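In this supplementary section we document a worked example of the pipeline. Step one takes a protein sequence of length 118 as its only input; no multiple sequence alignment statistics are reported here. Step two produces a three-dimensional model, which step three serialises into structure tokens for compact storage. The input and output of this example are shown verbatim.
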Amino acid sequence: MTGFNPVPKPVDKPKRKKQNGWKEKAQRYCYYTGAPYAERHEVYGGPNRQTSIDHGFQVDLSPEIHERFHRPRDSEDIERIAYWKRYYQSQYEEKLKASGVSPQKARKMWMWLIGENY
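The serialised model returned by step three reads:
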């Protein structure tokens, strides 16, 4: 039999995207209001959403505040968003520096991970 291959070709399955724990929603509380049933917001969205889930760059928000994170209405909303981006960047870089990585290398690693300096 010509062309017969006894080893089956591997099936390429699409990579399953991670979820942000919607089943645990009843146990989450909004960072700002303390309201229960908070929604988990990935601080770095778009192509970095999965990275945010992997590294825990997330904050629990009430549905109303979560909506404002996606559609900011005023300078307070914009500052809240910027705060969390700066916060998680500094946490990430400080953890690297504590493990012996130089500040310059820590920043390069951040830029490789997220692609933007906050």
